Amino acid sequence: MAEIKPFRAWRYNEALTRKIDSLTSPLFDVVSDKQRKALFQNPLNSIHLSVPQGPNAATKAGLLLQQWKDTGTLVQDRLPAIYVYYQYFKLAGSKKDFCRKGFICYIRTYDWEDQVILRHESTIPKAVNDRIELLDKTELHVSPTHGLYTDPDFELEKYMDEAMLAPLYESEDYQGVRDVLAIIHDVSVIEKFVHALETKKIILADGHHRYEGSLFYKHQQKQQNPNHTGNEGYNFHLMYLTNTEADDLRILPTHRLIHDLSNFSEAEFVAKLQADFEIKEIEDADTLNEIILGKKWAFGVLLKDRSLKIRLKPEAFTRMTWKFPETVKELDLTVLHYFIIEKILGIPGKDQRKSENILFDRSFSDCLAKVIRGEVQMAIITQDISIEDVKRVCASGYTMPQKSTYFYPKVVCGLLFSSIKEEEFLSPAFGPF
Predict the structure, then answer these.
(1) Of the candidates 289, 402, 297, 298, which has an alpha carbon nearest to the alpha carbon of residue 354?
(2) What's 111-173 look like in SS3?
(3) β-pairing, 202-206 with 255-258?
(4) How far apart are CA 276 and CA 296, in angstroms?
């Protein structure tokens, strides 16, 4: 099962971490152009390593990283550690205070067929290629992916809570989330984490592109290394692990935006919907996301001149021809991608991962604004997915359509980094790891 290990993180020096808020940044796949532009104004912000810009961007990130190491901007911790990471947050419409508890460590990069790390989403090839190039030029994991393990006994939480009594630093991020980082050096406690995960499979919650980039890089380096042992740095990936059984795991919906389809007609689209969907006109477009809640196979459709609530007719479901197990076929998003995106809009399932006509947006208000401004031809509003759905899909061996889940809150970049350069990856000779 899952092999994890502590590591020696690279972190901003002590003086800089007093202003850690100014150094963190959103992950590469959620940062907006506006955020990126603002963050680039700070020459020390982590965005310069995670989402480098311009020609030869990855090469420039590698040179900048070395400069930051040479000047002491980044300093490597002397001892291997498990890094405890708590995220405190609220959700709209709820008075509850949430705290997602987890820890950051290295995990061996397993092939999908090993069935140790389980994926639930398809990836977008271009995004994977970007991550491979960045890893190749920097030999640095700039942010942890998010993995899920299942432990109904909550064996590790008490050690994490104890570490949080003396945090390294706290930060309020772009989501309004309070991020707190602590550290565990105690060898006996670290061994408890290692042993606890030895019996677990891991569901990849967030970071499919980064993990797939690590997987490709591992195989590339293995082929080029005649003395490969399996213990080199390139065999490991940086991961943030949280417990599926905690009541702090939130999955938000990600809506679909359709744009630049040739010969698109609203009237023709709605006429085609009638074959498979029950359709209801909605007067107030800004309530559409609430109207569909809790209804199976129900979606909102925002068009330039009208707003619709649509729901798949039960008899239509039997006409789906995609060869998936029932667990996957019955998902709302599978229904959406088959009956709307393939059957009506004419984008075959095999082409949807790389389609230039499909965009993704978590914000309902953004979707509404983009339709009103004419930036997109339509928005298809979706509902959230349960962690039980994610577990069932992973167990089936299949994946959901791309961008099916938005685990909230997102991990941020800049709290720590990890190097897979061999001399920086290895634990000290005097240490137990």
Answers:
(1) 402
(2) CHHHCCEECCECCCHHHHHHHHHHHHHHCEECCCEEEEECCCCCCCHHHHHHHCCCCCEEEEC
(3) unpaired
(4) 14
Indicate the CATH number for domain 254-383.
Answer: 3.30.1760
Q: What is the pLDDT of residues 136-172, one digit of tens each?
A: 999 999 999 999 999 999 999 999 999 999 999 999 9
Instruction: Record the tokens describing residue 123, joined without a space.
Output: 């990836």
Residue 204's nearest CA partner among 180, 181, 231, 238 is 238
Q: pTM, whole model, 2 decimals?
A: 0.85
Rounded to 5 degrees, φ, ψ at 416 are -160, 165
Q: Which residues contact 351 (CB under 8 A, 6 or more apart)?
A: none
Q: What is the pLDDT of residues 110-126, one digit of tens each?
A: 999 999 999 877 766 77
Taking the C-alpha atoms of residue 266 and residue 281, their distance in angstroms, rounded to an integer, is: 14
Q: Domain-by-domain residue ranges, the chain?
A: 4-249+408-425, 254-383
- Reported as type and span, the H/E element at residue 290 is helix 288-291
pLDDT < 70: residue spans in the chain: 123-124, 127, 429-431, 433
* Both structure tokens of 27: 């992950």
